[in-house]
Every structure is written in structure tokens, then in C-alpha cells.
Task: inverse folding
């Protein structure tokens, strides 16, 4: 079983909203930075959003800034990605990942190689 499990994907029309959730499987990620990445067919996996372990620092890809919001509830050991004003180009498999505490504190979020634990992904499809 994957160390993190994503949920909340689905199909929506342009302008719609979805909220993705990510929870660990069999462990706690309270002291981990968390990130969301996505991969569209034929493209590389790309950074979408990140949040540090305490939730005090976030970062977003330019393509989603102002539309997506990442948040975490450490009491529930869950990370969320609220996606509003969705566009067809947001269509992709969305992955949640957990990285070391230093991410978002002394390191940036955008390098996917620094994230140690990955989910299997959840499909998001936006139709025009």
C-alpha cells in the first residue's frame, strides 16, 4: 500500500471546483512538508503546491496561483488541495507527496526529488 493516499478526484466542467485530500497510510506526517504534483499524459510530473510542516509557508505554481489553495490539518493528519476555477489544462493525475521537515523551511518546495513518500495519484478531468 502506498504511504499516502489521495482522494477527491473526479470529472468537472470548466470553472468547477474539486477538493483533493491526502492522508498517510500507517504513519503520521505531522513533521513532514507536503506537496501536490500533477502529471498530464505525455508530460513530466510538475509541481502544483506545497506547504511546510507547520503550515506557515506555502508555494504555488504560477499556473494555479489564485485558483488553488493548499492547507493542512495536523490534528486530522490530512492535507487538502482546494481547486477552484478549473480549466481543461488542469486535467492530470494529481499526486500527494511527503518530504522532510526542511522543505519549505530552508529549502524550496518545487524539486520533486526531495519528496520521499508518494501516493498512487487521483485523476482530475476538466472538460470544456
Result:
Amino acid at each position: 500500500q502506498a504511504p499516502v493516499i489521495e482522494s477527491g478526484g473526479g470529472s468537472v466542467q470548466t470553472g468547477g471546483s474539486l477538493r483533493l485530500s491526502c492522508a498517510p497510510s500507517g504513519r503520521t506526517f505531522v513533521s513532514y512538508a507536503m506537496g501536490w504534483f500533477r502529471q498530464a499524459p505525455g508530460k513530466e510530473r510538475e509541481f502544483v503546491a506545497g506547504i511546510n510542516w507547520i503550515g506557515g509557508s506555502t508555494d504555488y505554481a504560477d499556473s494555479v496561483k489564485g485558483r488553488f489553495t493548499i492547507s493542512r490539518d495536523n490534528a486530522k493528519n490530512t492535507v487538502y488541495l482546494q481547486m477552484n476555477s478549473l480549466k481543461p489544462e488542469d486535467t492530470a493525475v494529481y499526486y500527494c507527496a511527503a518530504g522532510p521537515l526542511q522543505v519549505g523551511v530552508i529549502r524550496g518546495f518545487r524539486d520533486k526529488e526531495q519528496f520521499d513518500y508518494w501516493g498512487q495519484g487521483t485523476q482530475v478531468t476538466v472538460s470544456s
In short: The two ends are 34 Å apart (CA to CA). The mean pLDDT is 94. The longest strand covers residues 92-99.
